[in-house]
């Protein structure tokens, strides 16, 4: 079963004449573990932002193509709906995992007793 299907995905950031993504096609099957690798500026982060809905819901630009998660297009879905099935781990994953803990220690909740 396909978990992710990407067809002819292209994206231009606002105020840019260069495509950040150019006709990307990808199938990821259930149970597969993938890594997205490439040189700086190759579009890795842009692709991830498209997968989790940050692009085009929050970060605007011109996007064409289709992304399906478990057979459903995410075109009309809100970020919170997409997040039920898609997650993103940053390259500096420790800062992502421990940021909440750090913030909690920096700003402890007052004891209400």
Explain what this protein looks like in three dimensions:
The protein is of the alpha+beta class and 113 residues long. The protein has a single domain, classed as P-loop containing nucleotide triphosphate hydrolases (Rossmann fold). It has four helices and four strands; from the N terminus they run ββααββαα. The chain has a four-stranded antiparallel sheet with strand order 2-1-3-4, covered by helices on one side. The protein starts with a strand and ends in a 7-residue tail after the last helix.
Secondary-structure topology with pairs:
Elements (H helix, E strand, L loop, with lengths): L1 E12 L5 E11 L14 H8 L2 H4 L3 E9 L2 E2 L5 H4 L10 H14 L7
Antiparallel strand pairs: 1-2, 1-3, 3-4
Features:
Rossmann fold, globular, 113 residues, 27% helix, alpha+beta, single chain
Poorly predicted segments? none
Task: Report the major sheet.
Answer: 4 strands, antiparallel
CATH hierarchy class name: Alpha Beta
Give me the side-by-side strand order of the main sheet. Answer: 2-1-3-4
Whole-number radius of gyration? Answer: 17 Å
SSE class? alpha+beta
Classified in CATH, the superfamily is P-loop containing nucleotide triphosphate hydrolases
Count of distinct structural domains = 1
According to DSSP, the number of beta strands is 4
* Helical content class: 25-40%
The succession of helices and strands, N to C, reads EEHHEEHH
């Amino acid at each position: 079963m396909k978990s992710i299907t990407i067809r002819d995905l292209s994206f231009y950031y606002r105020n840019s004449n260069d495509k950040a993504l150019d006709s990307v096609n990808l199938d990821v099957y259930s149970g597969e573990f993938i890594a997205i690798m490439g040189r700086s500026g190759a579009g890795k982060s842009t692709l991830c932002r498209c997968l989790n809905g940050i692009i085009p819901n929050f970060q605007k630009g011109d996007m064409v193509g289709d992304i399906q998660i478990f057979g459903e297009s995410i075109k009309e879905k809100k970020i919170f709906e997409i997040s039920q099935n898609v997650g993103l781990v940053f390259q500096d994953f420790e800062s992502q995992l421990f940021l909440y803990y750090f913030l909690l220690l920096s700003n402890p909740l007052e004891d209400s007793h």
